Amino acid sequence: MQFSSSLLENAVSEFAKLPGIGKKTALRLVLHLLKQDTGDVSNFSEVIARMRSEIKFCQRCYNVADADICSICANSMRKQEIICVVESIRDVIAIESTQQFNGTYHVLGGVISPLDGIGPDQLNIESLVNRIQKETTAELIFALNPTIQGDTTIYYIQKKLSPGSGGQLPQLRITTIARGIAFGGELEYADEMTLARSLQNRLPVESYVASK
Amino acid sequence: MQFSSSLLENAVSEFAKLPGIGKKTALRLVLHLLKQDTGDVSNFSEVIARMRSEIKFCQRCYNVADADICSICANSMRKQEIICVVESIRDVIAIESTQQFNGTYHVLGGVISPLDGIGPDQLNIESLVNRIQKETTAELIFALNPTIQGDTTIYYIQKKLSPGSGGQLPQLRITTIARGIAFGGELEYADEMTLARSLQNRLPVESYVASK
Fold it and tell me: Which of A79, A82, A127, B14 is 20 to 30 A off residue A4, Cα-Cα?
């Protein structure tokens, strides 16, 4: 693309660095901003810069926060003894949007994936184990993506917490979110693994009806 | 969506104001920026803000410019006596990318569209007529989108320049870009209007071969 203004060209190439945004989309976005008030655009740019420079990560759960401790960890109305282990901040937002979970989180920052060079030390696992040993955690819920890496991570953390390692407290319950046929999904298109698991982990009808 | 950080939430809603970007995409972009260096993100935000506050519009052709006159108008290598009339800056970029045009532009800023409340006075038409009368323009090429509004605009400007209005210089040639079957297009899927026009405006084979 040929630009007659280097200011425009620089703005387009900055936008085009964002994931999933090509040169044409970047140009569309920049030309949109060009039509807005200068104040609105400077507000846009300020909010973005402030977000990056001022955002913090919760010292307890590694979720994004405005302070040292995030609003979920600081909320005494939530069950602090229940920890939901997730891969990323995005998963926290997804679970929060269901408004069905009233515990706390622990953001691992990824899953164990030797092929990508990610071992347990690059993740917030040590801090999770320390947190469980220090706090009176009652339940650990794994909400990781159903991949081999996710399962490996669950296995690793569970081992770390097993009585043999001297870690697990007797009262700690470890669970994982249910795998099965999604609502709106069709049986015939489900993969065999999911279908098999959903048969194995079948539920009594009364509990299914009650949860709806 | 539920956010545990208002900094994050504000950044997401700023991105979601952009056209074609929903809340989920906005979140993806913000989380991407969160992973970048603070310096890179502040550079991103600075480039956007500077673009909006410092960009100028060429006083001659209304294209975007870094100075009072854009780089195309200021370029003495380009044929200043040929003016290509386009709707928007985006069209200038599209034509420049072909590297086939060596004249100048005039950006109307839209087309006449009474239904949208856009009359000739809201567009850069007066300045085009003045420009043609002042400069020794040899050719005016209309490169507007083939819509009723585009055709109306061509008709209006042409009328303004016709000898009756005392406007047109005797040597001014007025043309419009060719309508026809696009390269890669298939005859059977072309609409009747385009196919009919492409038959009417058929070209001698030698000129077709020469232009390839």
Answer: B14
